[in-house]
Design a protein that fits this description.
- The chain is mostly beta strands and about 230 residues long.
- The protein is about 10% helix and about 30% strand.
- It has three helices and 20 strands.
- The strands form ten sheets. A two-stranded antiparallel ribbon has the order 1-2. It has a two-stranded antiparallel ribbon with strand order 3-4. The chain has a two-stranded antiparallel ribbon with strand order 5-6.
- The radius of gyration is 34 Å and the shape is rod-shaped.
- The N and C termini lie far apart (about 90 Å).
């Protein structure tokens, strides 16, 4: 037979005729028994290259190309591991080592939507985050009851604090606070020469509140509001 074909016996006529090599054979070449001689086309495996590689495989999965067991993947798609890429990575990883178990110390990258960063082969919580009951990293709740935690993805992963709805951020000496709109407006109504300490601490002004008692508010916060 010519290259690209092999002799196949017709059992009815007892006469051999040349058949085209299996469609999955690399370069269309096969042995005299019909098995592929140069391995399989990309995405196929088996002696006759009739089997399809798992969809989670990247690259070849036939023994001639990989040097591994037939059907074993060269590399896995993101989120999968194992010889045949049929097992999921640990929940803390977005990508993991193909061979080496399923523990949390097998990560090669971390999920983009989680507050984690790759340290060695583990996805550790970023600063300001802790693991919840499910083992996932979440930004810590702020100590200030008027603030919410916020997970920022760009330009880098960051846990920061933002003011809750209905409050406004006011800056002081190297820090900020979230002030209710009622307090903010009460300060805005005043002039600097109207300010009094009253019975407040030395670093606070006594601010009259509409329809309620006065409140002590730090001087640096008051100054920031009045200078806007």
């Amino acid at each position: 037979c010519e290259e690209g074909s092999y002799p196949r016996m017709n059992l009815t006529t007892d006469i051999a005729r040349c058949e085209t090599c299996p469609i999955g054979c690399k370069n269309g070449k096969c042995h005299k028994d019909g098995t592929c001689s140069e391995g399989c086309k990309l995405g196929r495996f088996g002696r006759y290259c009739v089997y399809i590689c798992p969809v989670t495989c990247i690259g070849a999965c036939d023994a001639a190309a990989t040097g591994y067991q037939d059907g074993e993947c060269t590399k896995c798609a993101d989120g999968f591991r194992g010889k045949f890429c049929n097992k999921p990575c640990h929940k803390m990883c977005s990508e993991c080592k193909q061979r080496g178990g399923d523990g949390p110390a097998t990560c090669t990258s971390c999920p983009a939507d989680q507050a984690t960063v790759l340290v060695g082969s583990k996805c550790e919580c970023i600063e300001g985050a802790s693991r919840d009951e499910e083992g996932l990293c979440q930004c810590d709740d702020p100590k200030d009851p008027n603030k919410d935690s916020f997970f920022e993805l760009r330009p880098r992963k960051l846990c920061r604090e933002i003011c809750k709805d209905g409050t406004r951020e006011v800056f002081g000496n190297k820090e900020s606070t979230c002030m209710t709109k009622k307090k903010f407006k009460a300060v805005m109504r005043l002039e600097f020469n109207d300010l009094e300490e009253g019975d407040c601490a030395n670093d606070e002004w006594k601010i009259p509140m509409p329809d309620s008692d006065s409140e002590c508010i730090r001087k640096d916060f008051v100054s920031n509001i009045l200078q806007e």
